[in-house]
Amino acid sequence: MLNYLTIYLSDPYAFTHNEAYVADVFFSTSSKWKKLCLQKLNQDNHFDHIQIVIPSELTSFTVIKLPEKSNKHLDKIIPNIVEEKVAQDIETMHLSRGKASDSNTASILSIEKGLIKQILEQCHKLSLYPDSIFTDAQYLTSDENTLSLFIDNKRALINCNRYSHFVSDIANLSDSLDTLCSTNKFKKIALFNSEEANNQHLLTLKTLEANHNLIIESNGNYQDFYSLINRPPDLTENSAFINLLQGEFQPNKKKNSDEKKQRLLLLGLSGLFIFTIAYQLVMGWYYNQQGDELYNQSLSIYKEAFPNDKRIINVRTQTLAHLKNSGHNTNQHQFLDLISSLGHAWQASDQATHILHIRFEKNGEMILEASAKTIDALETLRQTLTNNQLDTKLLSANEDGDRIYGRIQIVGEIQ
Q1: DSSP E strands: which ranges in 272-375?
Q2: Within-domain flag for 73
Q3: Whole-model pTM above 0.90?
Q4: What pLDDT digit, counting tens, does each position of 184-238 carry?
Q5: Do the domain assignments include residue 272?
Q6: 63 and 157 inside one domain
Q7: Strand-by-strand arrangement of the 391-400 sheet
Q8: β partners of residue 149
Q9: Residue 188 lies in a domain
Q10: Separation between Cα atoms, residue 167 and residue 147, nearest integer Å
Q11: pLDDT tens, 60-115?
């Protein structure tokens, strides 16, 4: 389901000068309208669509006849056609065109360039990137037999068969409706009215109903009208809607697409980073467990060898002290160094051999009994020890089943 945001700017001019502007906001995820300071929008939300809705009185609506022949420079011709119908300076106006009708006409909405530019700039400051701006009158959808009307105590919105009209003076409502109903054969008026709507205007509609043989159908109140502008319109199916973000203000789809790709890339990198950290933590725990297990084994052997020691702080240092003070051959202090060198050599040889028995002689030499699948593995272990500046010799090697059993002599000074 698409995640979209609708923002109704009842006073766009105030919005352009106030980042703390409070607007009516609709979130598709909650399906509710809320009054919210736009600064407090959660920027972590990534909306698929953002639409802005503004009051219709900020725009001018007109219908023009398009040239009979298709013209590549239509966007340059339209301003000249519209200029004859509107009172504003066409150079200061932004024109947005609706889809052409079967009769080769098109609806045009014009708005001050400065205003729409300021709206977009303020949105961008708030990290909001709308892909459409519509006027509220456009949401009063109608057909050839129906006139849609919204009234409150200040204004009236009228929509009838591709014709959107804003009545600036509510007192003119009666005359405007009478003219429209006289020139069009409407059968029904779909009415939305606020609680503040003047009862006199409702009586005017009753008179209109009688004079033009119409049916006045109440479609709800102010909130029901808001429900019409929840979802962005499907422009592929409804040609009556005109998005003001056209031409120079058209959203940069490539930029938006790149931003989505960047978000996906950052999400992937974040996942990889979390996985790497988790892997390092697991491996750290594993090696700590292995280290603890080896230490416990060394401690157990030490206690068996020196049962009278009650306080054990450093197994290696205390073992070396015992050997130095034992009164035996002075070369016995090499025992721990030989064991250490053997351990490094065994790790370097990919642990391809199994150490079966170690015998340390009083003359300082060590006899190592080991087994492996091949004699090459035994030779690799012996060669690694030799590379550690130890004198080594393969004393014997015998085959028993699928294993080779050998004895290696180790002598020499440890560097």
Answers
A1: 353-360, 366-372
A2: yes
A3: no
A4: 778 888 888 776 666 777 777 888 888 888 888 887 776 677 777 776 666 555 5
A5: no
A6: no
A7: 353-360, 366-372, 403-411, 391-400
A8: 158, 191
A9: yes
A10: 14
A11: 888 888 887 766 677 778 888 888 777 778 889 999 888 877 778 888 888 999 99
Residue 122 sits in a domain of what CATH number?
3.30.420.380
Rounded to a whole number, what is the distance in angstroms from the first to the last CA of the chain? 71
Q: Are strands 49-54 and 4-8 parallel, antiparallel or unpaired?
A: parallel
How many C-beta atoms surround the C-beta of residue 309 within 10 A?
14
pLDDT of res. 329: 47
d(CA 197, CA 289): 78
Contact, 281 vs 128, CB < 8 A?
A: no
Q: Name the residue range of residue 381's domain.
A: 315-411
- Note whether 42 and 107 are same-domain residues: yes
For residues 112 and 9, is the Cβ–Cβ distance under 8 A?
Answer: no
Q: How many residues are there in the chain?
A: 415
Question: Where among 210, 229, 248 does a domain terminate?
Answer: 229
C-alpha torsion 91→94→99→104, nearest 10: -20
Q: Supply angle C-alpha 128, 129, 133, rounded to 5.
A: 110
Asked if 350 and 306 touch (Cβ cutoff 8 Å), the reply is no
Tally of domains in the chain: 3
